[in-house]
User: What shape does this take?
Amino acid sequence: MKKTLELVGQYYLLMKRVFQKPEKWKIFWKQYAVEAEKLILDSIPIVSIISIFIGAVIVIQTANNLESPFIPKMYVGYMARESLVLEFCSTMIALILAGKIGSNIASEIGSMRITEQIDAMEIMGVNSANYLILPKITSATTLSPFLMLESFMVGLLGGALIVIFTGMVTLSQYVDGIQFAFKPFYIYYSMTKTAVFCFIITSISSFYGYHASGGSLGVGRSSTKAIVVSSGLILIFNLIITKIML
Assistant: This one.
């Protein structure tokens, strides 16, 4: 318990340093663009591949379980849409990003710590936490909702492709199901969750990377801790946000 409280206190103190006004906004926005490409744009391929197959799997499973002739086939598209927008495109994608983004951030900052690059910044009077971490957190948090939208659309496309190739339901039935009883609020709900989850991933990973020690093995341990803690907090905050917003 004592160790946990110490970690929470260290995390708070680090975030207090991170969320200070940047000394040079021009440098901040330049780093923001770099981190946006590295953390968000480079994640599009893996998110797209996973989403298209998950969309197809959801459609197959739903169609195979709707055996009653009294249940309209359009519910295949409806269930696929609800499953993707409510849970998969936010929570499951965030858990995937915790591994990809989290390990990237923790290893990058951890390597800078053990090679004393961060110490050199501090000696020169640079707020290393603000310079290194703030662009990562802001870029991932503000742009990740668009990654969720991309995952949602690609997942629906995957479902449409499996419908076309297998003919288990007609494409018009699938599209009718997607449009049936649509609630735009679910999109905002899922985007909000994704933004919160990416804040957790980037801040926790930065924290463990920033406090890495023990050489290359220490960097590896920091990356592992960052992924495990981020994944656990994502599940906890998924429950909290769902309870508050729905």
Summary: The chain has one domain: 25-245. The radius of gyration is 21 Å. Residues 75-114 form the longest helix (40 residues).
